[in-house]
Amino acid sequence: MTTLAPTSAGASQLTTVKVRRWKMAISLSIATVLLFLLFLFVPRDGVSTFRLGDPASSIDLPNVSVPTAATSWGVFVVLVLLTLWALWDAWSYRRTGLWLPIAYGVLAIFAFLTWAAADGLVPVTGLLFGAVSLSVPLIFGALGGVIGERVGVVNVAIEGQFLLGAFSAALLSSITGNPFVGLIGAMIGGVLVAFVLAAFSIKYLVDQVIVGVVLNVLVTGVTGFLYGALLVPNEAALNRPVRFTRIEIPLLGDIPIIGPVLFNQTFIVYLMYFTVAIVAWGLYRTRWGLRLRAVGEHPQAADTVGIKVNMSRFWNVSLAGAIAGIGGAYFTLVSVGQFTKEMTAGLGFIALAAVIFGRWDPIRATLAALLFGFATNLQNLLTVLETPIPSEFMLMLPYLVTILAVAGFAGQIRGPAAAGKPYIKG
Question: From 222, 234, 389, 418, which residue has the greatest number of CB atoms within 10 Å?
């Protein structure tokens, strides 16, 4: 970090102040200690088997079996070395490379799964497929959150956009028998919630967080009422949506392990790939993205060059609502197959956490959402493997990962400067 320091003659000169970054090193140290305590006090022995093949793939891979205790402790030694590397980087005023936490995370998950799968089977493809499936609504919600906050509006109403999107998709798909109509309806539902959020926070200057929380409660109550009064009595006609089916991409779907995970999916998942790429490219490579970021960072400066700040915020928040609505459609058009009360179960708030953990960047937010989806699916796998971990801990695992990610790794990162602040033209 470079600063100005006064000299004896009264002038100023540039000086470099070195700063030690301990956040990453401390986080890895805590994870290493927790794994050590787990392996030491809850030892497991036997053989852990990893199934790499998939029945849907034309390429059959053999299972991989490893000794549980020896492999767990062997990988743990490597984790200790990586932790020491991070500590040395921090002590030497060096920034730790991105490769180190990625390598640590992969090896730590492998060591933990090896310990958990003693005399059991880990379906690798199934684990990854489930993680991607559970991450889809989170990714759409996170993208909506990134766009909203980048333009200066904190989108706390992602949960409400999920719910109304899921309800609209189920209703319209059931009536028309066309899942694409349901998808369009879900986008409209998300836009409606975003429209109210934008109107109150931009035009009437109501606190954005309060409006978002109230909208979540309102949509939960409205959809719950309509579910009981409209969908339950007419379930066969109004709550049996036609769902999207899987579409396998030739050749790509036959790639071992990742082929069935990424390229044997439904239309909404492929739309997710496209949306992530378009938002990431548009945010940094187009005039739209430049204006959006300018409005969220310094609205006064944007106004002086002719950008209509509040109008830009209004339309971009509506776009964010449409994207989040697609995430809601995934619940009823792919995952569950019908609408139920409060079926989103707070995932909108986890999507908001992914925005923060991803530092308001589309790609990083997507990776954060994938992490949370993996944690959720890991909870289901650990229950099947009958690990000696209390079931209560299993249920809170995804939320614990969310808290640790935001508080530990995200740290005191700075969001868009004007996020949450209404703009009043002087």
Answer: 418
User: For 83-103, what is the mean pLDDT?
Assistant: 88
Task: Tell me how far CA of residue 247 lies from CA of 22, 70, 270, 331, 411, in angstroms.
Answer: 46, 41, 9, 18, 40
pLDDT of residue 57: 66
Provide the H-helix boundaries in 51-178. 68-91, 99-116, 124-150, 158-176
pLDDT value at residue 391: 63
Q: What are phi and psi of 413, to 5 degrees?
A: -80, 155
pLDDT of the residue at 420 = 77
- Distance (Å, whole) CA 402 – CA 413: 16
CA 408 – CA 24 distance, rounded (Å): 8
| String of DSSP letters for 209-260 | HHHHHHHHHHHHHHHHHHIIIIITTTHHHHS-PPPPPPEEPTTGGGSTTHHH
What is the torsion angle, in degrees rounded to the nearest 10, for the CA atoms of residue 225, residue 236, residue 164 and residue 177? -160
For residue 252 the two structure tokens come to 């790509």
12 pLDDT more than 70 = no
d(CA 326, CA 188): 9
CB neighbours of residue 71 within 10 Å: 17
Q: Between these two residues, 203 and 78, which has the higher pLDDT value? A: 78
The burial of 367, by beta-carbon neighbours within 10 Å (0-12 exposed, 13-18 middle, 19 or more buried), is given as: middle
Which three-class secondary structure state does DSSP give residue 206? coil
Question: Does residue 240 surpass a pLDDT of 90?
Answer: yes
- Please name the residues in contact with 425: beta carbons below 8 A apart, sequence gap of 6 or more: 303, 309, 310
> Strand pairing of 47-51 and 121-123?
parallel
User: What's the rounded Cα separation, in Å, for the pair 279 and 262?
Assistant: 19
What DSSP designation does 121 have? E
User: b vs e for 203-238, b when ≥16 Cβ sit within 10 Å of the residue's Cβ?
Assistant: eeeeebeebbebbbeebbeebeebbeeebeeeeeeb
Whole-angstrom CA distances from 327 to 78, 152, 187, 269 are 39, 22, 9, 10
C-beta separation of 341 from 223 below 8 A? yes
